[in-house]
## 1
Amino acid sequence: MKQTDAQIEQHHKNDSDHLQRLGYPQELKRVLGFFDNFSVAFSYLSPMVGVYSLFVLGVGTAGPSYIWLIVPVVGFMLLVALVFGELASHYPIAGALYQYGKRTVGPGYGWWVGWIYGMALLVTVASVDTGVVPYITTLINNLTGTKLDGTSHVVIVVVTIAFIVVQTLLNSVGAKVMGIVARLGVYVETIGTFGVAIALAIVGFHHGFGFLFTSNGAENLKTNPLGVDFGGNWIAGAALVAILAHSYIFYGFESAGDISEETKQASKVVPRAMRGALLYGGIASFVLVAALLLSTPSSTHGYNLATSFSGGIPAILAQLPSWAQDLFLLVVCIAFFSCGTAVQGAGSRLAYSYSRDSQLPGSNWIRKVSPRFNTPINALLISGIIPILFALLVNINPSKNVSVLWFVFPANVNALTALVSFGVSGIYLSFLLTVIGSMIAHARGWKPMGPFKLGRWYWPVSILGAVYLAAMLVNIVIPTGLGSPRGSLFNFDWITLVVMIVLLLIGAVYYLIARPDRRSPKLQDLDSAPPVDTPAKAPKA
């Protein structure tokens, strides 16, 4: 049923009043509805970006049956999304994870959650916008006959800067534009997942459905397409590494909470958007991965090419007509662009929320909101400049192993790749801290009063979610040697853990010198529930 103007105005007033009770004036403009909020979360999660980036790592380490590892990853992450949804329903505030940590445990705890999460977001922007380069250069070469080298550091930096500049401009002119770009991302992702699956099915699959239940010898060195050795162990070896190909995809849903202050009826909308983005992302990923696997050539040589870095998804799509290949390349490029736009939007809202509490150097400048567009304009600049600086790290690429203290920086791995390896570990650590913070608040007697509550299911849901996050964090960062599959393909032995420690030390230096926790404003007590559908009063006669 369509809402009247009076009802819409009442909802806006309820949202603003609730934000005021939480301690903040309404500075950003509430222009996003449910689908916009969902679209931002889904575009950040981006099945296409994840699958196109990590398909070879998954199938190359565990074979076709790696597809089924989607189920536990999405299932456990859904538990995390439920915990986040309860927090988002009660605290619909920009800079979600930072605010959740601050309000469930304390200002210092929240600062650390925000620092870890914020660095991971900025790294992710650089990762996504550099990751598009091979696809966009291939598309340009196909359409124009040029010979751009997608591996050239100069090309990578130029394309990345161009993407970030355009994303920053679009994000700057209003949250509604960010929502439009995210909506486009949803449409494109739908075409690019289900469309690719349908196109490949029309051309003809090379395997039956039962192929998805086989490892195709991936656990054995002689038959592993990437040349890694799991000693014949699939569950205790190959699966533990291949699951990371899914773990690196299924997050980003939390960004729905980052844009809460620009979302209408956020207490209701955000929890639904989080769950919806995760579930739809899981379905889309499963369909796309299944189609790609069933379309791998049946010959040993063809299969090994399609599941190796020298071939990968382009080798599978080569079965399609050239125009279809170019169409899907365009779709992939748009998906990467939409993903980067969503991540940058989330990062800027975190920076805005941080600086509004005087938690960063130059907070008064960073917190500035554009009077014309009602966007955190300077926070967006920060969220553009830092990823550009990160992108420059592609130029640091040692030609031989470099020994540093007790660990080795491997040859032919650029510094950005090493930094990107922190991106996921930072996400999992900040997620774990957020769930732990929620558990601490519940143990202290905190009662969520938003429209979405877990009730008696809270403790089993939160405990299982925390256990999963902790186990996956260990799986991501644990050093197992450069010669191991994990070390050679994912975390580069000690590198991911060391990068995480270095960034934590940088944060610790600032934290101990500036003590931002002492500058944080006094928390507002919330004695009433977030806004509900309050009926508009009829005008007096």
## 2
Amino acid sequence: MENIIKQLQADIVLALKKIYNFDCELNSISFQNTRKEFEGTHTFVVFPYTKALRLKPDQIAQGIGQFLHENTEYLASYNVVQGFLNLSFKVEVWLQAFSEIIDNEHFGQAPKQHRKVMVEYSSPNTNKPLHLGHLRTNFLGFAAANMLEAAGYDVIKSNVVNDRGIHICKSMLAYQLFGHGETPESSGIKGDHLVGDYYVKYDQTFKAQVKELVADLRSKNTDLSEEKAQEMAAKNAPILLEAKKMLQDWENAVPEVMHLWKRMNAWVYAGFEKTYQTIGVNFDRFYYESETYLSGKEVVKKGLESQHFFQKEDGSVWIDLTEEGLDQKLLLRADGTSVYITQDLGTADLKYKEYGMEKSVYVVGNEQDYHFQVLFQILKKLGRPYAEGLFHLSYGMIELPSGRMKSREGTVVDADDLVAEMKQVAAQRTAELGKIEDFDDAQQEKLYAQLALGALKYYLLKVDPKKKMIFNPEESIDFQGNTGVYLQYTHAKICAILRKAKQLDIQYRTDFKTLNSIEPLELELLSGMMLYPNLVTEAAESYSPALIANYIYDLARLYGRFYAELSIFAEPNRAKCAFRIAISAKVGQILQHGLMLLGIEAPERM
């Protein structure tokens, strides 16, 4: 089909020259999908040419349409609706195009571009387990990496682990105070969950101390407002001061603190790895902020020497970005400890030194929009060669029907628990259908996991990344409607058709030239399938898995109409029967590939 489209572009350029003596570039000619209420599959919009040609849109469209009809072999008909020229190709054009893609197992995979891009996602803190919000960043990052790879990029998937800082010290301190030697083994609690429990314990203790301090302060000074007392108490709670002291001890490599840090982090890493395996994401390179913050300090030191940064009287280091419409940004605290952006500067340099990629994508929630504006601006000011290729894939937060999640208060939806609950729902819904009685226990468990993760991933990815969303588990695992399970079920149904074709020894990968007509639904499916390769490239360039999700849903829904309205095995014309099986096979392949890009498995039986 690509060759026909190029020929059509060339013929329209020729028509503009021959009829109107107007010159234009081949790549300026583009097409839209014809609206469903009009006949045709490709529409050429002529409004951009009305001013130069000094003619009404419908006159231009009519002239070009007539020229194409009289001078080409591929056009069946055309119609004009104002400035829209709707085009219909001959049957043999579609059959030839379909013959070219039916055996292409790499349909949707672009040739290698030999261009490197790094996609950073997950980015967990080692003071708590992964939760629902982490699932969105993991699924979004993994899908973005898959799409970029399908678009021909060499992709490096990275995970920058925040394994140092005040939040990590809070969990460590709470364990030191209240842990009594508890371990994942002794408690039977997964390591990341155990450490997260102590993060919650810290917050509970902090709030209790603040409440006590507020009461004490106001009893001694009755003129002190509640708000001012809260502010003073929050800064002076004993457990917070201890956590700050622990952070300084960590940066000074105090042995006792380092031993506890390594021990608790090891528990967390083991827990994270189990979760990553369960949810089906992986990484090519892990970076640890404990290993990059020193190089970040070195970047700050050199920036100070080059006068890109400045130092305040208290010794803290800043950058002034007010001329860029931002603000002054702290880069190093007065006590010499680093902030998040310090280590981000060091990590960015290390990434480029190791891989030399031309693009670097950070998949992080939109609450960090300002942080990345500042980071990217600093790297540009420092003249980093990779600065122009930096991109923040910002995504909206996920909320529950009951409101926003808070890790320190223990109100998050835990990722492990959520996946387990989704598997239970998948098992229940599948049992109600009663179609897998012959599956053994292992096959059933595998299917439940595929359905649960398919439902979860699709629900989180079908929405534009920038949009905030409310997660509803019940909606996500419905076998009907715009869900991952519906797409998996459609793929499984197609697999059943192909198994039956094999049993009946129907050779459907044949030459379709004997067909002299195509049903409207068949044509709509063929036209839709031809869009897939360009759609993958568009989704990759815009970092939007939602484009893939909505495309494959529309394709599956259209196939549902095709399956309901047109006979396949009951069709008496053997050529038509084979053609419809072939269409089914290609739709199934595209669904499988599209689901794969989203990180979703496509079962062959359900």
## 3
Amino acid sequence: MNGAQGVQPIFILPEGTSRTRGRDAQKNSIAAAKVVADAVRTTLGPKGMDKMLVDSLGDVTITNDGATILNEMQIEHPAAKMMVEVAKTQDEAVGDGTTTAVIIAGELLNEAEKLLEQQIHPTVITKGFRLAKIKVLEIIDKLAQKVDIEDEKTLKKIANTAMTGKAAERASDKLAVLSVKAVRRVADVNGGKVDIDTENVKIEKKQGGSMSDTELIDGIVMDKEVVHSGMPKKLERVKIALIDSALEVKELEGDAKINIDSPEKLQAFLDGEERSLKEMVDMVTKSGANVVFCQKGIDDIAQHYLAKLNILAARRVKKSDMEKLSRATGAKVVTNIKDLNKSDLGYAGLVEEKKIAGDEMIFVEKCREPKAVTILIRGGSEHVVDEVERAMEDAIKGVAAALELGKVVPGGGAVEMQIAKYLRKYAETFKGREQLAVNAFANAMEIVPKSLAENGGLDPIDKLAQLRSEHDKNRTSAGLDVFTGNVSNMLTLGVIEPLKIKLQAVKSASEVAEMVLRIDDIISTGAGNKMPPMPPGGGMPPGGEF
């Protein structure tokens, strides 16, 4: 190729690719992340407001739960999606504190942006943030107080704090008691260590009634009905069999065929089917069971025989419900009905089919020391029931998180103010630019009390000054009471949060902030790997073929 023709441009990326580099890429990512944080910031605290989210089908969700809001919003920007991941991680790991985690991440990026404008390199900022995060985790642990499974009073305060500001708050006293009872029932205590799987607290919701009609059932409630109209609808002091196989005659597999060439053979075949079904039912009665929950199908003939024997049965019970029934009643799930014997059965004081809001539900209750329970949520409308469910999940997971680490911290922005105070002292130990990053982390932590003040209609600058003054006097539990506008002792007010929630919020927020800060090039292949358009008249597109 000679010089007269010039150099052909080389296409490395497909046509339609957009690319943002350097300072612009950082600004772009930070701006997107801040928008996400601002979207949920107004929902924080007892006076936080709700969001109404309408999807493409017109379905409405009304909530102030950070994770739910970000899940429902169809976020496209890659950096903003990273903020959504923070909320998801927080929700899955501890179940509450999603809004806190997202707004801290947003504020860390806001503070980092100021440092970038002072020509401080992103790696210096991320190093400072990492050092600050390690220090914060130490500080919070020292500030925490112990709580154990017998301390119902403190656990109720934790549940109440988790529900404050949500629609369920009107009935929060009763709901807090239910969530604490539920968590204590399903907890496994081994040598002083508390192990809680919140999946064992089943939440069933049915609209109708009011929030105060929500109840805790010592057993399992299933959205199922009794399979046969001739079966009893209510039995007391029952023996329960859990069967993970079908009470049906097996279908032929592959290309197998049965040739029946006379009515007598057909009758013999049908009699044989009926006999094998009768044998299955006999195995159930022989074990002593009078209630059968089957994970698969129950044949019509088997249903008839069970009904004649006054046995209550339900079919196609979900695997998760079978596991919970096992934990609640003490029954073992049997895969082969031939192996069913007396020792595999569970006990319940009452099994009853009830009609709730027009739907039949089976209640398995009055179990002896159930390790799986159900909370049946009621409410005036579908939206109310959904929001109460979210509040109950936060309360249950909050109580479980407190018991797992056995430690709690004061809420109302008290911990964040204490962290900021210690970090500013810690920053003085650095001589380099990391000092500015550690200070920036301290400022970012104050976004929590600041947002609480703003959402409560208070002056954030005044309230932050008051909080700093109190914490300088070593009043470590001083936080913001948004109802009175005063700075008060959060432990006295009963505003308590699990240590685990705060630890996870700081970890998630700082890690996502570090990740966003390190991005200096955004390459978006919007057009995918499509070929560039062909020029008129065919042939190769101009400008080479790379």
